[in-house]
Amino acid sequence: MHETERHRIILSAIQGKPMVSVAELVELTESSEATIRRDIAALHVQKKLRRVRGGAEALHPPQFVGLAGRPFSVNEAMHARQKQAIAREAVALCEDGDPVIINGGTTTFQMVHFLATRRLHVFTNSFPIAEHLLKHSKNTIMLSGGVVYREQGVILSPFENDVTRNFYARRMFMGAQGLGPLGLMETDPLLIQAEQKLIDQADELVVLADSSKFHQRSSLILCALPRISTVITDAGIEDRHAAMLEEAGVRLIVAKAEAEAGRATGA
């Protein structure tokens, strides 16, 4: 990752919470600890943040605490081809008239391009997904209520009596921070709380995760593997991770990128 992009992520992260640790920034930027410490030192000299023991903080700490994780705009560019192929397979599971939940995220966002000609009842907590589908499709859209978190583009509510409990879905589609033997992982307690409510409203849980997510870990478990009905990933998945899903009874769909699909059909 280029220095300019790392600096943007670091500055965005400290605007979302009072203090961000070096370890958190290493995970967000996928860089080394030494690189992050140099970045923090440089930004401190430029008076763009304050270097503190073990991390960095904003010069003017935020009044409103944001979510952990990379901004939507940063994640969107990562593994883009794989995400598009995965999203295509996800939409192929849907039939017109289906009630579905599409959780916020950059992989699930790619579903909007393949939903343009479909007619589904879509419940989402993603502002970008709702906005795109309203402008470019005839799907019925229902939004969750709550606070809009600009960096991640999601709408979350800490309250139990929100509209989530009034929507039934045949399937819920969601991304992942990480996937491992213990289950589906996330980075923020507020995301966990909101997503668990959504999962309870769906018959099937379909996880859209590029193969890099099998190597990522978080301290928070959203749900155990057996709760997941289907995982859609790319051809980079390792045999041991495929075996892990099979042992848990999870259906695996491996999506091919357009170039790979073309070669396979002789196109």
Outline the structure in words.
This protein is α/β, with parallel strands linked by helices. The protein is 37% helix and 23% strand. The chain has helices at 3-16, 22-29, 33-45, 72-76, 80-92, 106-109, 111-114, 127-136, 189-199, 239-247, 258-265; strands at 19-21, 50-52, 55-57, 99-102, 121-124, 140-143, 147-149, 154-156, 169-174, 178-180, 183-186, 202-208, 220-223, 230-234, 251-255. The strands form four sheets. It has a seven-stranded parallel β-sheet, with helices on both faces. Strands 1-3-2 form a three-stranded antiparallel β-sheet. Strands 10-11-13 form a three-stranded antiparallel β-sheet, covered by helices on one side. β10 and β11 (183-186) form a beta hairpin. α1 packs across α3 (33-45). It starts with a helix and ends with a helix.
Please count the helical segments.
11
Structural class: alpha/beta
Order of helices and strands: HEHHEEHHEHHEHEEEEEEHEEEHEH
Oligomeric state = single chain
**How far do the termini sit from each other?**
34 Å
What kind of sheet is the major sheet?
7 strands, parallel
Let me know the number of strands: 15
Runs in which pLDDT lies below 50 for 5 or more consecutive residues are 261-267
Strand content: 15-25%
Compact summary:
This protein is of the alpha/beta class and 267 residues long. The chain has eleven helices and 15 strands.
